[in-house]
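Two proteins, back to back. First:
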Amino acid sequence: MVARGSGKARPPLWGPTEPRQSSRARSASATSKALSPELGQKVRDMAMRFSCRAPNFLTMCSVQEITWKRYLSALHLLHLFLTSAGRCIGTLDDVDAGMADMVEDSFFAGGVRAEAQVTYAAFLALCPQPMKGAQALPRTVRAMRAWQRFCPATTRAPAPWMVVAAMAHAMVMRGLPTEALMTLVMFSAYLRPCEAWNLHAQDIVPPCPPMSWTAAINLHPEERGVTSKTFATNESILMDHPQHTFLSLELVRLAAAVKTGKLFKFGIHHYNNVFRSVQREIGLPVMYVPYQLRHGGPSADRRDGVRPLAEVKQRGRWASDSSLRRYEAAARLQKEEARLSPQLRRFCLSASASLPINLGQSLSRHLESLESESSSLRSSRARSTSRILQPSVAIVATPSTLTTLPTRTYYAQRPTRLLSASSHTPTACSSGWAPRASHGPGQDVEAALVPPPFVTRMMGSMVSQGSVTRTLKRS
């Protein structure tokens, strides 16, 4: 289609065909993240047990595979409870009444309310119900609400900065600077443990003076096709804490050394073991888990007045104020600090004061070891490449014999000597063997060679008494 008054073609209304190709590519990448066929069949079988319509492909993929495994276990216990009690599960009202009785039995047996919530969420994932207007499973919802009134929900206590710094100092003393850096980044950037462990070198954006002087983290970049827990992409976090400026430098250094791939190369189970062992080494009165660092960062920033509440909420990527209230607890942070003995408190403060220097030195040694390993790997690859077949012995024909004597080249590990086909005089040679040739015009040429063992192995010739005869025929 050509526009009037111009010889150029008018672009199509919806643009070129590239967005369609990228859409197909995204569909292919999404298909690769789908549930396994075995798990999908288990979900469909469980739907038949509860007389529900089996969910389709996209409905099942709205829940992660690891969550589906937990849901199936909860649904299996629910089905076992209903069938053992002789209840009918033909309608939704029957399932609601049976699940409410199961919640009550778990309450009087001293169970955990979170397990009842998992069962409720599992059934809604298997058989989606309208959540607005007509409430789904009203008896079960009322039973869980009463349970919450009798037993209020508990949250994790925030980890104080001095304790986190002491743990990172202990990791540095063990020669584990990357584990210490990941611990500090989780506290300062309010990261979940899986988010910090899955950081890539490309996710660290170095500063660009004079516009910016601190590094930034680009969480869940859309180029990799990954999303957060809430399906968000390209979440920005600035490493601009005034007391943690050294973290920005160390992150940029580590990312520049790694270049590509994951920033932290160790396994998550290894990190959990190190996290527990350094706490026992320090002698903390309570044991923390890595997720409590996400509670400690916002609590410390609010207590110290580093950030306002709105900035804390944006940095933590919490969509609601109720979620923010679960993580920000300045009073509980001071309570955790009061548990420390005076001697342990002095040790933690001294460790936090010397942490920037110790972490920088340990990370420098770690980067030097990485560079030496990469250089040794490059040199070994270069040596293996140099051992590829290279010219070793050649009979070079003069212009008078060029039509009757072709050039024959033997191959070995390094060039050795050249023999002129007219004078039969060998040139300077570094090996210990010499070719001998005799020929006349129009005759065959026999080159009796005494090669070293590596040439013999490479040429695959039959060797007898250390010599091999090759006949070169006229072209």
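And the second protein:
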Amino acid sequence: MKVGKQIPSEKVEPTVEKHLLQSRKYLFNAYKSISDRNYDKASEFLWGATAQIIKALAAKKGIILSSHRDLWDFVEQLAKELEDKPLYDAFFKANALHGNFYEVRLGEKEVVEAAEDIRKLISKILGLIGIRDDEVFV
């Protein structure tokens, strides 16, 4: 994979941990925002949780992603390598949620459904990192 910049080997694990913790925090806040019926805010937290878990996987591979373009390229390549179009589709959905924070076009039904897809994506990515989701998301 030739996306992003290389991380020095001694910084790989701390970088993975940083992104895992941030993803967990954002996912928790997303579900809290959903329960508070604040769907535009939940949308942004869901996007953040997705972006951070993708960055964690990239870091595990020794890569730092520093732009939206890097995220898109990494996910596209990953989905092709794994022959996993649903992974790409879930990322696409997360990006739509990112836009919803600014445009507020999606309601409860769409955000709640997307949250479930994103939760599955996060579980899948955790597996690729080599972590059971109950080790991170309790």
